[in-house]
Amino acid sequence: MSYYEYNDLFLKCQKNGRYKMYTFDVVDSQNNTDPLITKKLCSIMTSLRQKIQEVEIRTDKKILCDELIYYDDLSKTTIVSNIFEKLDPIILGDAVSFTVYSGSISDELIDLLFEQTKIELNIEYSFHKESGCYETNEWVEGQTKYFRGYCFQYLTNKHKKKK
After folding, report:
1. How far apart are CA 95 and CA 119, in angstroms?
2. Which runs of consecutive H residues, i.e. helices, occur in the chain?
3. In 3D, which of 31, 146, 159 has the Cα closest to residue 92?
């Protein structure tokens, strides 16, 4: 089944989903000829993750989802079949996402840290940004709980509708 067949679960879990996914999609990527775009997206995610870990230390609060396999270099991973199920961040084409525990950090702080990271790395792309909650990292539970793969697809589809 397609992700949009689970949109009722997306709406239902926005108030109390256990996880929150943030997605970023390069604006007008069809006209972006930068051959290093994927490498730059990985760099953003690595640096952003470090910033969030610093917030975790300062606040003594668990923010990043530690139930997923973190990777920071696409060339080093051989895991492809379960990208939506186990890997974080998700990097697919010009879209990227990462997962935190719901309610552990504000959207405003994520936006601030993301923009700081872009400036520090001298990345001039504009990004569409979305976020939403989901309930499970396990695809087999996707019939009754909102699965992160559906969430990624739903949020990045919202990006496509923005001009």
Report:
1. 19
2. 7-13, 37-59, 83-86, 107-120, 148-161
3. 159
Residues 144-159: b if buried by 16+ CB within 10 A, e if exposed:
ebbbbbbbbbbbbeeb
CA–CA separation, 62 and 65 (whole Å) = 8
How many CB atoms neighbour CB 91 within 10 A? 19
Q: Which two tokens stand for residue 83?
A: 């990208």
Give the tens place of pLDDT for each residue, 84-128.
667 788 888 888 999 999 999 999 999 999 999 999 999 999 999
Under a CB-based contact definition with an 8 Å cutoff, are residues 19 and 68 in contact?
A: no
Question: Model pTM?
Answer: 0.89
Q: Using an 8 Å Cβ cutoff, are 15 and 102 in contact?
A: no
Q: Judge whether 86 and 79 are in contact, CB under 8 Å.
A: yes
- Alpha carbon distance 153, 74 (integer Å): 20
Q: Which are the contacts of 46, defined by CB distance < 8 A and separation ≥ 6?
A: 72
Residue located via tokens 């950090």? 105
